Amino acid sequence: MGTQGASGIEDCPFCQMANNRTDTDILLSDDELVCFRDVKPGATHHYLVIPRMHIDNCKTLKAADIPLIEQMEQMGRRILEKNKVSDLDDIRLGFHLPPFSSVPHLHLHALAPASKMNLKSQLRYGQHSYWFITVEKVLSQLKTHGKVK
Fold first, then answer.
1. How far apart are CA 78 and CA 4, in angstroms?
2. CA-to-CA distance for 112 and 90, rounded, in angstroms?
3. Residue 37: inside a domain
4. Structural domain includes residue 1
5. For the stretch 131-145, what's the b/e string if a residue is b when 16 or more beta carbons lie within 10 angstroms of its beta carbon?
6. Strand arrangement of the beta sheet that strand 108-112 belongs to
7. For residue 51, is the peptide bond before it cis, meaning its omega torsion is within 30 degrees of 0?
8. Distance between CA 102 and CA 104 in Å, rounded?
9. Cβ-based neighbour number of residue 116 at 10 Å
10. Mind listing the pLDDT tens digit for each residue in 66-82?
């Protein structure tokens, strides 16, 4: 799996959420993942999916992490469907590239509808964002190169 960070559970707000040490409203969870609303939504529907295990960011992922990323994508789609997002072709699923991650813990953004995001959100999460990499690109790079470039 991806590299565990040196900061550890005590300093990481997402580790605290994943271990039920905050009052965050958990919308979906399983043994490996937790999903909750983004506190600064970039779209009508904006959720974060995080692994319970601390992984710094998408650049620390290895080919062995492909199943985890696929599970994160599935949970992202599931939360959108659960919240009645009917057009699953009008969504954005992806990660911010470091150093543009707001929290140094791997987190998948699930946003919808992508076509209605404002300009600021398009810059942060849109197709032409320099800072945002889609889950498809992450998986492709892991399969091809064994890492995220």
1. 27
2. 6
3. yes
4. no
5. ebbbbeebbebbeee
6. 28-29, 33-37, 45-51, 108-112, 92-96, 132-134
7. no
8. 7
9. 11
10. 999 999 999 999 999 99
Q: Kindly name the residue from 45, 46, 96, 107 that is annotated as catalytic.
A: 107
CATH code, 49: 3.30.428.10
Residue type, 2: G
93: containing domain: 8-145
Percent of the residues in the chain that have a pLDDT greater than 90, as a whole number: 86
Split into its structural domains, the chain has a count of: 1
Residue at 42 is within a domain: yes
Q: Taking the model in full, what pTM does it have?
A: 0.92
Place of tokens 């799996």: 1
Question: Per the structure block, which two tokens stand in for 141?
Answer: 């790079």
Query: What's the CA gap between 122 and 125, in Å, rounded?
Result: 5
| Cα separations in angstroms, 36 against 45, 79, 116, 147, 149 | 11, 9, 21, 27, 28
Closest among 13, 37, 14, 15 to 27, alpha carbons compared? 37
107 is catalytic: yes
- What's the angle, vertex CA 129, arms to CA 149 and CA 111, rounded to 5? 100
At residue 95, what are phi and psi to the nearest 5 degrees? -130, 150
